[in-house]
Structure formats: C-alpha cells, structure tokens
Design a protein that fits this description.
The chain has 98 residues and is an all-alpha fold. It is built from five helices and no strands.
Length: 98
C-alpha cells in the first residue's frame, strides 16, 4: 500500500476562488473557524480532493487552514488595506493572481 504524502498539496485556483467567495460574504467580519460556512467549504474541498483522486494526507483540509487562507486573502483586499490595516503576508503568488 502506498504511503500518503506527508504534506498537503498547495491550494489550487478553484479552491482559492471558493475561499475568496467565502471571505467576501462579509469582508469586515469573515466567518470564523467554527462557523457553519467554514464547515461547508471544508466538506466541499475534501469532496473535491476525493473525487479528483489526488493523493493527500489525513489532514488535507481543516477549518484552521480555510480561515488562514481567508486571512491571507485579506492581506490583498484593497478596502481592508485602505483602512491602514495589514493582513497576513504569507500568502502565495496564486492568491495575488486570483
């Protein structure tokens, strides 16, 4: 039996778009880690990975990862930045493209 990867795959474009859509439900107060909206996105992302047959580790997607992705996207939100605030700086290049 093949050993699962030890690291999750990078977020792809579709996944980032879904996280951005969730972020924009309320940019001033994005859904929290324990929110039903994050749980719904988590289920969708995990289903997408299962259906694609991607090799993943046991911790593929989790609520913390989704929330972190929204905070990375916030760092690119011009409305948020115009308030003199800064978001997380660890986002990837694909986030800037999306």
């Amino acid at each position: 039996m093949a050993k699962p990867p030890s690291r999750n795959p990078d977020w792809n474009r579709d996944e980032i778009i879904l996280a951005l859509d969730l972020y924009f439900t309320d940019p001033a107060n994005p859904p929290g880690k324990d929110s039903p909206a994050v749980a719904e996105l988590l289920a969708l992302l995990n289903k997408m990975h299962r259906l694609s047959g991607a090799k993943t580790c046991d911790t593929l997607s989790n609520a913390n990862g989704i929330y972190l992705k929204m905070m990375n996207l916030r760092a690119l939100d011009p409305t948020y930045l115009a308030q003199g605030k800064v978001g997380m700086k660890a986002g990837g290049a694909l986030e800037r493209v999306v």
